């Protein structure tokens, strides 16, 4: 790997540094209150003596009227004084028990005065000077132990701490630590460089091997077709492995470097122990979550099987292969969707307690927040769903029917959970919210007509001077000329209004199998024939408003029906050049 490649590898060092700052944060946080050898505590509360950021002993009892915090402060001063003498910093234990005081008359009186005749204690000494006493009341109740056993453990911790304090001023030992640090840094750098080179070489070799491999099946090079995907997957996996290896290497290097110096050695021990504790907790939590995950998976598998069986049953009802008294082809679709939703909702409710972290306060808080957001923001969505289900189960609309909803007229293509889609026949699709459809009157032109046809209606307004029987005959003639109008049942005309200036006539007919698929086209043909018939007989259509009789009827004579560029049927239009 060249210097440029190494630069690309090292450009992520701020992210790595941030990760390890978070990793060592617990160790540093634990040492915040250990910057001084003796911590500060409230009176009559347990207090711990620290030496070089190492916990030595926790004082819990009161001795000669001194609280645990005062005893810790005195012990700190005594340790400082003992180390300032420049001795060998040898730590030993002086046991004082009632039996031992009986054998040592010279010490008996002083020990009994200080500790009491029945109290067992241990004095910790540095170079023969007692720095503090360990009493029976200072011991933890669990596990039970004696003063002698506890004092030996305290002696070992104190010996290690005072040795590190002396080591801080040893330039020879500091130089050795610096040399080891430099060697470890170079070794870690070379190892990381080698891993980067190994990754690139391995990926290049695998790429060449995949390109050279020719496994053909049915004349297609399958391996060559999937080579880019395989190479991309391997590249991502190698990056993940490289990051994990880099973090582990950084942990090993940092722990080793911190252990070389007495001042930072406690941090190294705590950081390694913290990482091990985190990994242990993670593995234990993962192992503990396996039974719950298996139970949740079984619940979801059973729910999937039940939902699949319900779907198959409803699909048979939709196709008409299964007839039930309470279910038909129109309601089978919404019943399938609602049933599957209920099945998965119950499955999720049953599996929820078995999911990892379901009982944690954070998980419960997120669940409450999600429920609150859903209840506040989904009221309109729920209203649309309820309206959609009402339309489906009321059978007011079916796909394929021609309807008029408000100002929208066309063929229903879909009745969904949220919206109803209508093709107007004019090259557009209109999506109407189900809540709007549910609140509007729906005029269905297909419900009362068999074989999927529709009703054709048109209205004209004619003056009172024209005989109504003539108007009826002309409208029926226009219907007869329209190819898409059925003869059975026959068309009919009704007079819907006697207005101030004209009479309103409405032609009602039904389409047949020759009618266009789009009702708009059939209505257009019928309107054209109505205009032709009225023009042939010289009758003026008074729409939209009639104010006064014109000097002559406003009609178009047959001779002008095909004024250019219009052409009679059957005559081919010449292509302009």
Task: Please describe what this structure looks like.
With about 575 residues, the chain is of the alpha+beta class. Among the domains are: about 30-170, no CATH class; about 295-375; about 395-445, SH3 type barrels (Roll), CATH 2.30.30; about 455-550, Alpha-Beta Plaits, CATH 3.30.70.100. It has 15 helices and 15 strands. The strands form 5 sheets. It has a 5-stranded antiparallel beta sheet. Strands 3-4-5 form a 3-stranded antiparallel beta sheet. The protein has a 3-stranded antiparallel beta sheet with strand order 13-15-14. A hairpin with a 2-residue loop joins strand 8 (about 400-405) and strand 9 (about 410-415). The chain is elongated. Residues about 1-45, about 100-110, about 215-220 and about 575 have low confidence and may be disordered.
Q: Which class best fits the helix and strand makeup?
A: alpha+beta
Fraction of residues in helix: 40-55%
How many helix segments? Answer: 15
Overall strand count: 15
With strands numbered from the N-terminus, the spatial order across the biggest sheet is 11-10-9-8-12
Order of helices and strands: HHEEHEHHEEHHEEHHHHHEEEEHEEHEEH
